Amino acid sequence: MVTNRKIINPAAGAIVMAFGIFLHTSMNLLPFPSIMRPVFISLFLTGAAGILIALGVQFSSREFRRGFLNNPVNFFSMGTWVAGISVSAKVILLYYPEFASAVTVVIVLNTFLYGYYICHCLRHFYNLWRTPEAHAPHGVILLAAVATQSLVIVWNVLVQPDIPPLGVLFGLLMYTTGAVVIIRHYFWNSKGTLTDDWSNTNCIFHGALSISGFAMVVSGSFAEETIAMFWWGTFTVLLFIESIELVRAGRRIRKYGWREGVFTYHISQWSRNFTFGMFFAFTSHVHTGMLLNVWGWIVILLLVAEVIIFTKQKTEGAPGGAHP
User: Fold this and answer.
1) What InterPro entries does the entry give (predicted)?
2) For the whole model, what pTM was predicted?
3) Fewer CB within 10 A of the end CB, N or C, for the chain?
4) Nearest Cα to 45, choosing from 27, 26, 20?
5) DSSP label at residue 73
6) pLDDT, tens digit only, all 324 positions of the chain
């Protein structure tokens, strides 16, 4: 019997994305014995499978699907499902390349899911542009670009020779479309405040650029000079967005205090873990040295902090959701 009880937040795929990019990149900075890495990977794959299966079961509910598909903003969170599967596949290919055939089957299915997703994204982009006053778009709609580039990356790993750059360019088109819609909202339609109406998901402004840059690297179809310039552009956007985040955090602390202002769990916070990890992945192909090491530890510390906040919220039974 189908019920209307929500099984899992549709954005839960961001958890898979956050841990997946950590295992793929900055985990190597930790002084763990090599024997421990298969344990972490097994735990990740088990957890990822549990989350993604739960999302699929929930989506099978006609009642849930009707509301979800018709929500022009929240629907974009399905992009975490596509990207979560892609990142999980990339982790498997990195540590267990002998399973490439099985991964290929999964990615073919994921590509069909992406096609279904992106068709609805195009419809919702149109609705958001046509009736801007009816909705409040934020960084979640940039997941259309993230999902696109995640598939570009994993297909370029699976297929030789390199795939033409059309996928990367389409992802950048999705990014541009989403960015214009969001910027128009904040400059012309939003009547809210930075303290309460700026979304955690706006960090995807730079995260989507980072994964696009990484896709450019993996595709092998872009000149090194182009990639270097793109990295500097991504870094500039990151500094701008995170500067806004620091100002917002200060205002929230003054208004709500430390705990409610910045240390209350919300599922959208996982998007920051993914975006910071993605910037590390992109940077690792452009720069070496102190910047890379420092950023790697930032990724690790942010992930640990998020796990602590999540665990505390679950053990205390407090409702998550103080942050939009």
Assistant:
1) Voltage-dep_anion_channel_sf (IPR038665)
2) 0.92
3) N
4) 20
5) T
6) 344 455 799 999 999 999 999 998 888 777 776 777 888 899 999 999 999 999 999 999 999 999 999 999 999 999 999 999 999 999 999 889 999 999 999 999 999 999 999 999 999 999 999 988 888 899 999 999 999 999 999 999 888 666 678 999 999 999 999 999 999 988 887 677 888 888 999 999 999 999 999 999 998 889 999 999 999 999 999 999 999 999 999 999 999 998 888 888 989 999 999 999 999 999 998 877 777 888 989 999 999 999 999 988 877 765 554 444
